[in-house]
Design a protein that fits this description.
single chain; 332 residues; alpha+beta; seven-stranded mixed β-sheet; 9 helices; 16 strands; 26% helix; 24% strand; binds zinc ion; MBL fold metallo-hydrolase; zinc; hydrolase; TAT_signal
Amino acid sequence: MTLLNRRALLGGAIAMGGALSLRVPDAGAAAPFRNSLPPAWHRFRLGEYEATIVSDGRLPLGQPEPAFPASPPAELRGLLEAAFLPPDTATLEQNILVLNTGRQLILFDTGMGESMGADSKMFGPTTGQLLANMRAAGIEPEQIDLVVLTHAHNDHCWGLTTAAGQRVFPNAQVAVSEADLKYWTDDGNKRGPAFMNVFIEGAKKNLSAYRDRLVMVRDGQEVAPGVVAIATPGHTVGHHCYAITSGNQVMVNTGDLAHHHILLLKRPAWEFSYDTDSKLSAQIRSRMLDRLATDRHPVLSYHFPWPGLGHVARAGKGYDWVPVPMNMSSLG
Ligand SMILES: [Zn+2]
């Protein structure tokens, strides 16, 4: 723009301002805060497949110290503060993968759902958003052919049925490990921490609705073309990660291998309170993180910051979480 044009424009603006006597709006016209969040889904290509991450909503853990019982409290606070996170409360996400292979629509885990009434809100009102966010992403529950579970905990399998016990995914088979199926439907395991009772009741209700359409997950075998199960026991007896390969791209869905992107990556040997065998869980986590850092494959982590996509990079005695930018339309 030339100087002459600018002068002419400015002159015009001043003249208009004078004619219309512009006023600043008064404070009484301020809009109310909306407090709502946009629908949470994120889509990208993985080789020949289309992947959509859908959120089941945030899952607030509250005070972090009880959730990480093997962690020295001062060190825990220091790690959170260094990452600019509040030291007195930890919030997890629930990042659910919908994989379209072109032949099948596969859902990985189902969130907290609403099948267990008030217990479905044991982490507060923000969970249970899967179906609303799926529909916002253009996916209907009737379209799901296969639900693949990483494990049979509340925030992963309680979304299989409605409160009335009806199947939410009427056309789906459900893939789960035999070890988790047995463990979490056995009343004999109602001992130990108080949550065991309701965890078992929830798994029984949700898995029994699909009893005639269960598929057993086996270590090293495909549950669908290009989707290979990797046994990673510890968090639960039958916890599995899934390596998803299409074309020349690989992504590893790690489920609950690690619950916190700072605490359990910087300190993989720390224990987590909801682990069935926290010592084994720490060992398996350390081994898998080492492998992921070596292989440099992108990772989808269920509880990491939305949408849970990133890489694991070695850093000192632990690892850094390096998020994949949201503007990547394809991984790899
Ligand atoms: Zn979980």
